[in-house]
Write a structure and sequence with these properties.
By secondary structure, this protein is mostly beta strands. It has one helix and nine strands, in the order βαββββββββ. β5 and β6 form a beta hairpin.
């Protein structure tokens, strides 16, 4: 298992911790830039302390037979999307708000990651992750 980084995950936050409101971060990996194996993790976008993820969208080309993707963070690899079929080109939307429908607030900065599982994921596939999140908003009930 190898951890890879999209340029957006390695370089910068999309929003500063002082920003308030809805933020959108996009991570993109061009085709033929990674050698991917079963179980590899690709850190796609960073989220700051206090972020509340509201939406996640995974766009992929065809990774090949029996390949699935999880989308999560450093704590839970399938927090937002679990075992999405990415054998063919696809668009997969977040399944829930994370933990049983309860909004998840990041108490430390983290990355939203894609984990590819299955036999021999294709290396020549471009893919993107779009993450929408709120910052500077108190969601305490």
């Amino acid at each position: 298992m190898t951890t890879h980084y999209s340029p957006q995950a390695k370089g910068y936050y999309q929003a500063k911790e002082t920003d308030t409101g809805y933020q959108k971060a996009v991570g993109y990996v061009p085709a033929s830039t990674l050698t991917i194996e079963d179980g590899d993790i690709i850190e796609m976008v960073k989220v700051p302390i206090g972020a509340v993820v509201a939406d996640v969208l995974l766009l992929t080309g065809a990774f090949g037979a029996s390949v699935t993707a999880d989308v999560g963070d450093g704590n839970t690899d399938d927090l937002y999307i679990s075992a999405a079929n990415v054998a063919a080109a696809s668009i997969t939307k977040m399944e829930s708000l994370g933990l049983a429908g309860v909004p998840y607030v990041y108490t430390v900065a983290d990355t939203i990651d894609v984990t590819l599982e299955g036999a021999n994921p294709a290396d020549t596939v471009a893919f993107a992750l779009i993450v929408g999140y709120l910052t500077g908003v108190d969601i305490t009930p």
